[in-house]
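PT: before anyone asks, these are the final sequences, not the draft ones from last week. 376 residues across everything. Please model them as a single complex and drop the result in this thread when it's through.
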Amino acid sequence: MLLTVLTTVSRWAIPFLLLVIPIYGYCKSIPVYETFVEGAEEGFYTAIKIIPFLVGMLVAISVFRASGAMDYLVRAMMPVMAAIGAPPEVLPLAVMRPLSGSGALGLATELMRAYGPDSMIGRLASVMQGTTDTTFFVLTVYFGSVGIKKFKYALITGLTADITGLVASIYICNRLFG
Amino acid sequence: MLNVIWLLLLASGIVVAALNGHVELVTQAALGAARSAVVVCFDLIGIMALWLGIMKIAEKAGIIRSLACILKPFLRRLFPSVPPDHPAMGAIILNLSANMLGLGNAATPFGMKAMQELQQLNRGDKNEASEAMCTFMALNTSCITLIPATIIGIRLSFSSLNPTEIVGACIFATSCAMIIAVSLDYWFRTRSHWRRKG
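LR: through. Structure below.
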């Protein structure tokens, strides 16, 4: 029931905003088309401004992944996973999640294909994928768009949140589905 | 911090590839990623232009400001350095709502708008993140998605008996992450205040 409501809301959200905002603006006698174009131009420059930041970050992450260095990190972390009661198969996903959105989605899909979506591994992969965000990507893009090069403590906060989300996913999956 | 992580990712990758005798993988990965970063940004241009255009209308019509007013009491505690009726607050609210609804495409432009507004308020070094930016990032990266649509879709495609059964678990796990992120951010923020005074 609640889910149906939520799905309907997210299906209607974008058409609703695209309808209501321009109409409201027009009623307030704003030149809607000209204002739109003015704002859209900003969008263009913002997207272009991110490119150097994203190139730097994606190249480093991609080299780390493709070289096999990430696999060593995963292997080194195996005992930790066993200690908190998680199947070791999901560890690559946990390491990939903050680094690369498409990479994590690929791994989650592969886990569900191999073990089935209703297995413990499949469910845990789903919850992990639905829980945390691609912290590195988000920070790079958001800070990059305004030219921020020093992230201060934002990265530590984001990564701690990712680890918390991972541990909480394992805990709740063991409780609900274990 | 970021300098060290970036260097570690890059250098450890190259060393491992060299030791395994696959150093050519580094070249492929680096050039491929550089290209795909540009592709991602080009894909962003259209979406960014669309939403920032709509945002501009909303801003001039006063919608962003009124949005900020609704959640004022809540946001004032999280962002003490931002004036409560500043447009940055409205953009933050739009970004978080879009995130919750799982509208990633709309969330990014709203978030960048929020960042631009916060950058204008940034009184310190313009190359360094302000406290309000760090709080916003903590909220954004740990934000709850009410319907993880992509993952439900994948579960469905592998014929799960109950594709949506994971939603409750996701909300629980994200709430834990969010509580930790906001508390940690608060701790860092108050500590740096304390340092400055001391």
